Structure to design on (496 residues):
């Protein structure tokens, strides 16, 4: 039969009616069908091991399952590119055999709808769990056939994981447009992504939450859900993935191969690389903010103190602010020291820079930076430290995270070379792309909101830069009013 035991993918609502062709159980997808699909489902040892660990019922723990499905040829050919070629092109042995069997029924004046199963043509196909990494694929395949024949599926309730398996099968058999329409018709609501608190490093995705989020991305990509796709890719970019972490345990990956080799753990069409790239770009831009100000305090070429009050204590204020800023960043594990000792060099390259936040929400990192106290060397010094200087910049960055971070499904499908954050659009080869936080940007209140005009373009401009000048407005203030062309103060008319 089609299987009625509960699994991690959903619970079939009772065994569907069926017949037997010899020892083959045949599910009547279309009782008047003119074809029997004989499908062999192969389940890998890794998947069976994972299913056993998850305590799935013994009925699901079979390495090979053979299942028959009575279907209608014209339905498969009209809705599936795979079956259209397999059953319609007589260069394939399957199509030729089907044609001969139907001709034989016609010569015997037997209608296929009234024929016995043994008289119908039989086509054999094989399916493995390489992409889905799930047991009971025969249940999911049966539901796919029901979707193609416009009849209700047998599995209840429908979960995101089960939809991911259906989407993988739909992609395999080239029938995603119809499955997309079915998904729209059932009005399935994707559950929200839930984060768990990591205490020191704030909220982060658990293993199961990340898998659910990745399944949402895969389903929305294959079954054309652009809004879900863009919001889900944005979430994975902001929250990070254990697959992108430099501290990922390779032994754990090998011991749980079935878990990590499902299609959603390596997103197709270059999406996996793009999402990781965008995550890295975000972290580079945000980390450049405190780094920029620390470099101003420590630069040997600084012509004057960063303290703008002009007191004789201004150099001392700079030293005080530098020390307090470094202490704050180190205590939050957002900054680390590496000396010139070979041992320090080896340790740094073995473990990398601070990794506590590699799986944390980007918004939480910004929140931490905003917590930098307003240090004062004495009562006469105000707004000299990082808090006052970074505040508006961090708000500007937060607004950029609202729009343009997630991947647009339409843009990615239409022109990937233009949609990607890889490369330097609008910059000559060999040039470094720079973003300057100018006075016009810092004073424009509209840019503090994520839905501002041309927000997506500005988001891309900020996060795809190679270097950032977060005090460009200071340079503008220093040079303002110096040059007026040929105009001289005191002239009574404009120069010719």
């Amino acid at each position: 039969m089609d299987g009625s035991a509960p699994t991690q993918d959903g619970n079939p609502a009772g065994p569907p009616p069926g017949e037997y062709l010899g020892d083959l159980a045949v599910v009547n997808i279309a009782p008047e069908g003119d074809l029997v699909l004989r499908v062999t489902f192969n389940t890998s040892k890794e998947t069976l091991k994972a299913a056993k660990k998850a305590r799935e019922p013994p009925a699901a723990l079979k390495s090979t399952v053979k299942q028959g499905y009575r279907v209608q040829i014209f339905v498969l050919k009209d809705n599936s590119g795979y079956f259209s070629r397999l059953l319609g092109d007589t260069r394939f042995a399957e199509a030729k055999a089907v044609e001969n069997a139907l001709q034989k029924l016609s010569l015997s004046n037997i209608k296929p709808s009234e024929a016995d199963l043994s008289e119908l043509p039989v086509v054999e196909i094989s399916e493995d769990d390489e992409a889905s990494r799930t047991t009971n694929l025969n249940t999911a395949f049966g539901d796919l056939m029901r979707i193609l024949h416009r009849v209700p599926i047998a599995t209840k309730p429908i979960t995101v994981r089960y939809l991911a398996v259906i989407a993988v099968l739909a992609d395999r058999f080239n029938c995603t447009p119809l499955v997309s329409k079915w998904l729209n018709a059932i009005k399935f609501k994707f559950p929200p992504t839930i984060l768990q608190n990591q205490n020191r490093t704030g909220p982060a995705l658990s293993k199961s939450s990340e898998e659910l989020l990745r399944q949402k991305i895969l389903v929305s990509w294959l079954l054309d859900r652009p809004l879900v796709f863009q919001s889900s890719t944005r979430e994975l970019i902001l929250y990070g993935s254990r697959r992108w972490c430099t501290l990922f345990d390779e032994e754990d990956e090998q011991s749980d191969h079935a878990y990590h080799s499902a299609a959603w753990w390596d997103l197709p069409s270059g999406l996996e690389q793009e999402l990781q790239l965008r995550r890295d770009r975000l972290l580079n831009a945000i980390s450049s903010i405190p780094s920029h100000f620390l470099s101003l305090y420590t630069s040997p070429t600084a012509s004057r103190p960063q303290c703008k009050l002009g007191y004789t204590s201004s150099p001392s204020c700079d030293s005080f602010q530098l020390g307090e800023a470094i202490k704050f960043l180190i205590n939050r594990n957002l900054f680390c020291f590496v000396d010139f000792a070979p041992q320090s060099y080896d340790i740094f390259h073995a473990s990398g820079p601070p990794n506590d936040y590699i799986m944390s929400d980007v918004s939480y990192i910004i929140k931490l930076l905003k917590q930098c106290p307003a240090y004062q060397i004495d009562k006469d010094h105000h707004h000299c430290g990082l808090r006052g200087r970074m505040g508006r910049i961090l708000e500007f960055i937060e607004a950029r995270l609202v729009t343009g971070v997630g991947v647009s499904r339409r843009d990615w499908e239409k022109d990937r070379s233009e949609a990607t954050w890889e490369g330097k659009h609008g910059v000559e080869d060999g040039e470094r792309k720079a973003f300057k936080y100018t006075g016009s940007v810092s004073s424009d209140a509209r840019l503090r909101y994520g839905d501002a005009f041309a927000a997506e373009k500005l988001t891309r401009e900020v996060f795809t830069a190679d270097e950032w000048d977060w005090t460009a407005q200071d340079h503008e203030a220093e040079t303002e009013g110096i040059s007026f062309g040929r105009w001289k103060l005191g002239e009574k008319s404009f120069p010719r």
Residues 271-298 form the longest helix (28 residues). Confidence is low (pLDDT under 50) at residues 1-8, 13-17, 479-496.
